[in-house]
């Protein structure tokens, strides 16, 4: 009976000894796997003000390695994050730091940035993380309305109506304005504008007050495709500038609703032969010639509304602007490199009644020798 108890006690002690040895191995492995022990690897700044200056935090670590460790580099994921760190080797058992300064200016909203830490221990880099929420700064009106026209200030010196459709109702867009002067600005006369643009303004605008200019654009009345520009004038009693002139921009296209499978089968299709054309090399003052062939691969008549280069240096002429099913035509191109040198890249935009691709662009390339 005593021998049995003795056997049990011996085996229990053996298992306890094995368990202790295994825990030592696990702890030792953990220390080797993480030689730099950080108090935290992710720091949440919480909410910080955009104009409150840089937010700073120190990631503190202890060197658990068997020798001194030197931080070689700390690489941030964003230029808004500036790192610093312990420059001298950190002795075994001593602490070091990695400082991060986050600049919130111009970055309202949530942020999540990382830092990649490299040491002379080799192995995998260490990743640290900062996050938080930047509350947007309140901006002065002068910082928002930067385009001045006398005392009347706007966000831009032009009004961009963006994309409008020739076969839809007129589009109305409101633009903010601001009186930066010390006197009331009266709009003394009706705005001067072309027939397809209607301009609505208040009778007056008090000092340091905001108002709105309402512009209604009738693309059907303009009756022109592509990028177009017009001019309007506001007549005021502003002491610095009575007549205020502004450009109004728009890109006019044709609107197409979703097509059924049968309608797609019968629709016209504009198919350029190439998506990019290399016109070759030339010297200043010597024009380059080229051509672009396009074909109607659809089953209804294709109408090319306009072919619009994005530069006055490019001239185009098409043999036909209407193509029957299966018919093709040639667009003659001419590029004048006067006053230009080096690589040139321009574009042609084709506007058509192809319902699936009513706006298509072809790139033109050339090289002007010096």
Please supply descriptive tags for the structure shown above:
single chain; 370 residues; mainly beta; Immunoglobulin-like; five-stranded antiparallel beta sheet; 27 strands
Question: In short, what is this structure?
Answer:
By secondary structure, the protein is mainly beta. The protein has helices spanning 2-33, 141-144, 219-222, 261-266; strands spanning 36-38, 42-49, 55-63, 71-76, 81-85, 95-102, 109-119, 126-135, 147-149, 152-154, 158-165, 171-179, 185-186, 197-200, 204-205, 210-217, 226-235, 243-253, 270-272, 276-282, 288-296, 302-309, 314-318, 322-323, 328-335, 342-352, 359-368. It has a five-stranded antiparallel β-sheet.
Characterization of this structure:
The chain is mainly beta and 370 residues long. The chain is 12% helix and 49% strand. It is built from 4 helices and 27 strands. The model is unreliable at 22-32 (pLDDT under 50).
Query: Major sheet: order of its strands?
Result: 9-10-12-16-14
Number of helices: 4
- The backbone outline, from C-alpha atoms, is extended
Task: Report the CATH superfamily of the largest domain.
Answer: Immunoglobulins
Cα Rg: 35 Å
What is the CATH topology descriptor of the largest domain?
Immunoglobulin-like
How far apart are the termini? Answer: 108 Å
By helix and strand content, what is the structural category?
mainly beta
Helix content: 10-25%
Oligomer: single chain
